[in-house]
Amino acid sequence: MRGPWLDAPERGMGISIPPVSPACRPVRLRLLLALCACVSAFAIAPAAANACASLASIHSFVGHFRVAYSGSVSGPIVGSGGTEQISLDRRAASVEVNLKHKARGKGQFAGIYFFTGRAHLGNVSIDDSFARSEGNLSAHQTYSGPLKGPVGGAELALDTDDCKYQFSAHFGVKAKFSGDPTLRPGNGVFVSAYGDRNHIPSDLHLGDGAGPDPYLTCPGNPFLTGKPCAQVGGGWANDFAELSECGQFPPEPTCGSGNEALKGSAEIIWVLDPK
Hints:
- By secondary structure, this protein is α+β, with helices and mostly antiparallel strands.
- Helices cover 16% and strands 46% of the residues.
- It is built from four helices and 14 strands.
- Strands 1, 2, 3, 4, 5, 6, 7, 8, 9, 10, 11, 12, 13 and 14 form a 14-stranded mixed beta sheet that branches.
- Residues 1-49 have low confidence and may be disordered.
């Protein structure tokens, strides 16, 4: 209902609206102001809710992670009636990280903050095996102990525009070989894993996990695609990928899709605190 400011057409329609008395106007004004205040509050609330935590005073993130991969594959040896079997089991648990190198991304990574650093200690376990029934050949690569040396680290990418973050970690060790020398591979083995994108919490305490698909090489850059992925390399990883995809040894000449997907499962779990 409006007051005496009704326009002429409305008056001509015979609508009789009494004028608002001066005593009532302050009440109406107070109600209008209250309504405006409520509308303003609703308009401001989403912006405040969507605001992302500031990284201005954050110098590093510290915490620990777990990365693991396990898979087994077998297939016939063409022309001999024998079989070939490869098993990979690689795990790193309670590995400590200090992501103390902070940088702002450029180019396609503009607007993203990166925190990187070395990984160490924890417990690493390697138990890889290769067996051929033809000739009764077998070999193992093993390791048990803390992560040490240069092959271990983690990366954290935080996009404060989208308020999303993504964590990646990797480890590698020199495994001990035992068994038939004709099956000896390189002694360096490694696993790296990328989690998926997660919301950045207001307190910046980051913790989550993912079960990424394993590959010999991740398709694309996971920090650009946002998709979780695990990479497995070194030791018998190439032989494993070939047998995993082609199903026999030696593989058919036409085999090889190039996607380098591996059988098996991988995981990455992390807990990080800001400093």
